[in-house]
Amino acid sequence: MNFLLRMLLSALAVVLLANILPGVSVSSFMVALIVAVVLSLLNFIVKPLLIILTLPVTLITFGLFLLIINALIILLADALIDGFAVNGLWWALLFSLLLSLLQSLLFSLLKEKKS
Question: What pTM was computed for the model?
Fold first, then answer.
């Protein structure tokens, strides 16, 4: 149940950012839901491989290259999904940063308060 709610909140974040950022577009909420699922799969499968392959560059840049990896994951999702478009690496980088920020804000609403 928690996974489904997280996917719905991620899709909501994708729709909000697509409406705010002119370089990102999503055609419907259903496409945004697909984007949320594909991004979570890519982050689970592809991102660890990219991190291992680019470990020297990541260490030299003190981890800042991870931002580029996140942008590349966004661009890969753009290539895989019809109805989702990102216009270039800079928009993908900005979308990635804002999506992470918005998701952490929305996911913090799901955490139960410990008493």
Answer: 0.89
Decide if 114 is inside a domain: no
CA distance 44 to 86: 21
Question: What's the domain range around 23?
Answer: 2-108
Q: Which uninterrupted H or E stretch holds 111? A: none
Residues 31/6, Cβ–Cβ less than 8 Å: no
Question: What span, in angstroms and rounded, lies between the C-alpha atoms of 77 and 53?
Answer: 20
The string of pLDDT tens digits covering residues 12-46 is 999 999 999 999 999 999 999 999 999 999 999 99
Q: Is residue 12 part of a domain?
A: yes
Residues in the chain: 115
